[in-house]
Design goal:
The chain has 36 helices and 28 strands. With 899 residues, it is an alpha+beta fold. The strands form four sheets. Strands 10, 11, 12, 13, 16, 17, 18, 19, 20, 21 and 22 form an eleven-stranded mixed beta sheet that branches. An eight-stranded mixed beta sheet has the order 8-28-27-26-9-23-25-24, sandwiched between helices. Strand 14 and strand 15 form a beta hairpin. Helix 29 packs parallel to helix 32.
């Protein structure tokens, strides 16, 4: 792209061979349309529904399960095979729906272009389709227009453009036509208008310099295409689990088959047992568990003001180590607000946030009513009188039409009981001298009791230099040098707190008739003013944002603010919210440009606030964090946030102020634009991961116990304690429904009081494996003990198998209650706090008893009816693993507290 902001108007016009007054001819416009192409953004790649559906079967664990289903069917266990296939298909359908709804960001970008616009063609102003705009066209701009292309401004009259969606700048930008230095950041290129931004006031002419994919918005679309989301930590962990289980199953089959042959067991019986055990070792309920856990998390997130577009992203957010957040509208209200007022004698603090008209005025700790303070009332009245904005009520919410700064003045006036409508009725407008970036002031002349009266607002140093009087509660008096010095000092203090300061003044124009005032130079009108006071405005931090940042620190999550705003504003907000701490740095976009990717990777952990950044900067910051192996979340609402959102481990868009582009690139949409909701999502994500991890531990512990039982029997020369059908039944009754119930467990308290887990950490860490093996040994121990007792005391193989089978099922079902937490005991959690699990265990017990007393099932499972004494004995034995595991928690608790 050419540095159009660096060129003068004459140079730009000459380079594009056009005419400021005549514009392009119709034929030349057609020729250039052929050369440059239509002014529209390229749509992203589209995949067919079939391709998306087939891609759901890429996971290794899915193919392991399909293999298990095939083996089950070959063994005659058709129902078990159908159940596994049903789980696989359900998982694929859910994944398909999620992915099919994604990848719409580029299409949303295209909708940001203006459908029609006004240009000069052949010396005439004409309305054309925005797609037919070409470089060299002269674009006509006025309030309410959506800018149709990137353009170099050539004429302006009080032109102001809202560029928040592109640059992150919270205030409308005043525009001019002068050339700027080459290194000027995007947000400071005040002689340019950009595609997708909107004109809030004034008029202008602009020379179109770039269209379509060559615009800044097109550049963002290209970045969006290059951004890659990558695999989620949960998917990587589950794939590793699948590979481990696959090799473990092969090993089990080979070992048992080999040992069995050496012992002379019939090959067919041995094959059935070995393969059945291998199938039982695979937790086929795991995809269903993951799906249920994530789906329930999604439902809970809706209740906490978050919409999840990709289910796995909730769990990913749970292991986030860094949250990169936009400032405007996320950490702040996104609405300019008057925070402080200074009059001749008093400093007022104003309560209330955003555009809401509820609020009060406090001097110290004392509330002041404007109706009882003449100087305060005069200041508020003039703020509404010298104003072009409107305050409207839409769906019960106050909205500003016009410049946000002027809207903030209307809001503060409304808090004092003064409305724009009342001002217009009491003092009809006679004339106005609009704001100009060179004059730095604005004047509105009104009819006050048949006398012209001027209300003026602008930069404090400019207004003060034109004031000779000051209003107090006692009346108007001369403005002394001491007053002037004190007010300039107050202005500096407000500016230091990142407040935008305006001075407000008034003047009687009795010496001018209305007709004369229109002819008199505005500098004559704006002299001898009476100063009413100073107003400090700011896009205020959200009330709950500071507490949310504190929660993030407690949870071991670093909060990084990335904004297009001025560095001073960003620094002030960073300090106020606690984002900037000791040793933390602030980095400006121009400084970031001087760092290569490696240098940025090295210093990114030290920077907590970025200011004056572009879309490309945000993308580089996210990539730098990811290069360090960090799970990074990125929030935003503007178009310039979209590429970084897509690249981040987890992209979070704002639902109220967010553009369609940003929402399309995001994984989660926050419906209340509240940073605190993101922290709630982190809590939810950690809870979901905990549920998945403890359910997997429960599943694998049971499967390990079964493996140990069968291997021990073969090594000891015993008959096989469990038949193939027993293994498949155990897999169905103890692994299926109880595991799903564990996945629905409530989130444990205190999940935000621990550091995030590293994305590189394996799910099978030392503690996980130790607990799994210990639990498996306990379960296998009681099962083998019962089997040996019945086999050698009662000398009945059928009775021994019956006892081992039932004791193992009971032990697994009871152990589900203890599997709900690694630290807290059953009594601390509450036995009935997960009623699903309680009911499922009861039903499973009933099914186990049923197969002992239904003749057809007795024959099928080769078991006998159980007596009451047997039932009590086996239940007692089944309690042993649960009791030991609960005692282990109690013994380990002091050590955990010490750590």
């Amino acid at each position: 792209m050419n540095a159009w902001h660096k060129l003068s108007v004459t140079e730009a016009v000459s380079l594009l061979a056009t005419d400021v007054e005549q514009g392009l001819s119709v034929n030349e416009a057609k020729n250039r349309l052929t050369r440059y192409g239509q002014n529209k953004l390229r749509k992203g790649k589209r995949f067919s529904a079939l391709v998306i559906f087939v891609s759901q079967f890429k996971s290794l664990v899915i193919w392991v399960l399909i293999g298990a289903a095939a083996v089950s069917a070959a063994l005659g266990e058709t129902v078990d095979g159908i159940a596994i296939i049903a789980i696989v298909i359900l998982n694929a359908i859910i994944g398909f729906i999620q992915e099919y709804r994604a990848e719409k960001a580029a299409a949303a970008l295209a909708r940001l272009t203006a459908p029609h616009c006004r240009v000069v063609r052949g010396g005439h102003s004409v309305v054309v389709d925005a797609t037919e705009i070409v470089p060299g066209d002269i674009l006509l701009l006025e309030g309410g227009d959506l800018v149709a292309a990137d353009a170099r401004l050539i004429q302006t009259s009080v032109l102001r453009i809202n560029e928040a969606s592109l640059t992150g700048e919270s205030q409308a930008v005043g525009k001019f036509t002068d050339g700027l230095p080459m290194e000027t950041p995007l947000a400071d290129r005040k002689n340019m208008a950009f595609l997708g931004t909107s004109v809030t006031g004034g008029t202008g002419r602009a020379l179109v310099v770039n269209t379509g994919m060559e615009t800044e918005l097109g550049h963002i679309a290209k970045l969006l295409e290059t951004a890659e989301s990558g695999e989620t930590p949960l998917k990587r962990r589950l794939d590793r689990v699948a590979r481990l289980l696959l090799w473990a199953c092969f090993g089990v089959v080979a070992l048992i088959f080999s040992l069995g042959l050496l012992r002379g067991i019939a090959p067919f019986e041995l094959f059935l047992s070995a393969v059945s055990l291998a199938v039982a070792a695979i937790p086929e309920g795991l995809p269903a568990v993951v799906t249920v856990a994530l789906a329930l998390g999604v439902q809970r997130m809706v209740q906490r003001n978050a919409l999840v577009r990709h289910m796995a992203s909730v769990e990913t957010l749970g292991c986030a180590e860094v949250i990169c957040t936009d400032k405007t509208g996320t950490l702040t209200m996104g609405e300019m607000t008057a925070r402080k007022l200074i009059t001749s004698d008093s400093l007022y603090r104003i309560t209330g946030e955003g555009y809401g008209t509820e609020g009060a005025f406090f001097s110290g700790n004392v509330e002041n009513l404007p109706s009882k303070s003449p100087e305060l009332f005069a200041l508020l009245y003039a703020s509404a009188a010298c104003n072009d904005a409107e305050l409207t009520l839409i769906d019960g919410r106050s909205e500003v039409v016009g410049d946000p700064t002027e809207g903030a003045l209307l809001v503060v006036a409304a808090k004092g009981g003064i409305t724009r409508a009342a001002v217009e009725t009491q003092m009809p407008r006679l004339a106005a001298v609009p704001f100009d970036s060179d004059r730095k002031r604005m004047t509105v002349i009104r009819n006050r009791e048949n006398h012209p009266w001027a209300f003026v607002k602008g930069a404090p140093e400019v207004i003060l230099s034109r004031c000779s009087l000051i209003r107090t509660d006692q009346g108007v008096r001369a403005l002394t040098e001491n007053d002037r010095s004190r007010l300039l000092q107050a202005n500096a203090l407000l500016a230091h707190d990142a407040l935008r300061v305006l001075a407000v003044a008034e003047r009687s124009l009795d010496n001018f008739s209305f007709e004369e005032s229109m002819a008199v130079n505005d500098t004559e009108i704006e002299q001898g003013l009476t100063l009413l006071g100073l107003i400090g405005l700011q896009d205020p931090p959200r009330g709950e944002a500071k507490e949310a940042v504190i929660k993030c620190k407690r949870a071991g999550i670093k909060t990084v603010m990335i904004t297009g705003d001025h560095p001073d504003t960003a620094r002030a907000i960073g300090h106020e919210l606690g984002i900037l701490g000791k040793g933390d740095e602030v980095l400006v976009g121009a400084e970031l440009d001087r760092l290569d990717d490696e240098a940025l990777k090295q210093c990114v952990s030290k920077v907590s606030v970025y200011a004056r950044v572009t879309a490309e900067h945000k993308l580089r910051i996210v990539r730098a964090w990811k290069a360090r192996g960090v799970v990074v979340a990125m929030t935003g609402d503007g178009v310039n946030d979209a590429p970084a959102l897509k690249e981040a481990s987890i992209g979070i868009a704002m639902g109220i102020t967010g553009t369609e582009v940003t929402k399309g690139a995001a994984d989660i949409i926050i419906t209340d634009d509240n940073f605190a909701t993101i922290v709630a999502a982190v809590e939810e994500g950690r809870g979901i991961y905990d549920n998945i991890a403890k359910t997997l531990a429960y599943l694998l512990s049971g499967n390990t116990g079964e493996l140990i039982v069968m291997l021990s029997a073969v090594l000891l020369g015993w008959p096989l304690p469990l038949l193939p059908l027993h293994l498949l039944w155990i897999n169905l009754v103890t692994d299926g429904l109880p595991a799903l119930a564990l996945a629905t467990d409530p989130i444990e308290p205190g999940v935000l009081n621990r550091p995030p887990r590293r994305s590189q950490d394996a799910l099978f860490n030392r503690e996980f494996l130790t607990l799994t093996l210990f639990t498996g040994l306990l379960t296998a121990g009681v099962t083998l003990g019962v089997f040996a007792y019945e086999l050698y005391i009662d000398n009945s193989l059928e009775q021994a198998r019956d006892a081992a089978f039932t004791a193992l099922v009971i032990a697994e079902l009871l152990r589900a209650f203890g599997a709900r937490s690694e630290q807290r005991t059953i009594w601390q959690i509450g036995l009935f706090s997960n009623m699903r699990l309680f009911l499922i265990v009861e039903v499973s017990f009933a099914l186990q008893l049923a197969i002992h007393h239904v003749p057809m099932l007795q024959t099928l499972f080769q078991i006998e009816p159980v007596s009451l004494n047997q039932c009590v004995s086996w239940i007692g034995v089944g309690f042993i693993p649960l009791i030991v595991l609960e005692l282990r928690k109690i013994i380990r608790r002091p050590r955990a507290k010490k750590d």
